[in-house]
# Entry
Amino acid sequence: MLDHGLDKPLFAMADGEVIVTFPGPGDDLDRIRTPEAAVPVLSPAAEAKMNKRQKAILKEAVKNGSVTTVWCMEQFGVTRDIP
# Structure
């Protein structure tokens, strides 16, 4: 929720039950945001843990639907790891 401009969920106990309240934007729909750099399944917090290569690979996968070993080798100037 924080990644999208909303407040944290609220947790409470009442009559032995857990109550979770998800505060919405109310009348201020402008406070809802979509993180620019995030893909649909990746939160900004998760993206922040990725290195430059991982981000480039993910961007390519989202753009083209897949990434090949050859693409990675050409993009990053690396060779295939052969055991």
In short: Residues 5 and 31 are 6 Å apart (CA to CA).
